[in-house]
């Protein structure tokens, strides 16, 4: 019984079961569309439709299109939503627009365009290609001219209004071309005008769309400021712009009228405040001025400081050398006969009955340690003068003070004589010379 129930349950499950169908893979289709013919210099739209049966998990990666002799503007990133039904299958996707402008007549071959997109639900990357196509561009190229429907307007703005000398007139020329790329619009001929100084501005170039990614045309706005240099009545000249008809290629033109400008003389108005008075108030308490020599002196000090800093090592060596030279000179002066002679002259003009500086000078000048020994080779009168001077100095009764003057006067002749027969210097230093040591001992006894 149980075996029979189990058999019928298995048959019922097999009868009610629905076979699972394999899920279909997502579809990606790429289609390129463009007009078969175009005019040289005009703009042709190449529409690239990227369709799928599911959805995009990431924006499609579009190919880069390079065509020799053709100005190509890639899609700006905006796209138009499209839907279609192909072979009974519902597709949806995006439409991108490339703008093509041929510079010369001929046939342009557009290769297959490969697009990669990530499709749901798994987000797997899928790649598809469009079919190649060709576009025939006819007509002669007209450099600097627009091919299409062109609308031109202009405007004037005066600052101030009415115009005065030194004011400006801003002239604006707006070109709007349907179906033409903005970069193909030529600049407006805003040239120089007599009696005005021209200041051109940067042009405004804008691509016009329908707000959903569809290309409409281009727009260019050129502006120039004209500053009045003098008073009078002057005219801004008319402007003429040329282009070609999009269909027939016939030349078209439009002339924008000029404008007569009345420029009044600039009013002579006094300033509302005195600049000199304001500067004086700002400098109140700080009214001082640098003399004419101050700036050169500051520059000289800065240059000297820089030279001192750059040559610091050299300057240190020079300072040490100068100090050593000054010390050696001071030592030579202290040991010189001239210094001892001046000291004796000062002592001779004094009132004290001493011969200390006289003995020092005699020893330095003649080499003798006593006055009698120094005057021994001299005349009898010189020796007698020395004896009288010694009695006056060391005698018990003292004497007249004129001995010092007579001795000082006669010492000039002694100095000349001793200079003529000055003995040669000893080979040994004074401290090591036994002759000098003996003289120093006798000086203490004199």
TrEMBL record:
Enumerate the transmembrane spans.
288-312
Tell me what organism the protein belongs to: Achromobacter veterisilvae
Specify where the region named Disordered lies, as residue ranges.
Answer: 420-446
Write the protein's name.
Answer: Protein BatD
Q: What is the residue range of the signal peptide feature?
A: 1-22
> Would you say which domain of life the source belongs to?
Bacteria
Which keywords fit this entry according to its UniProt record? Membrane, Signal, Transmembrane, Transmembrane helix
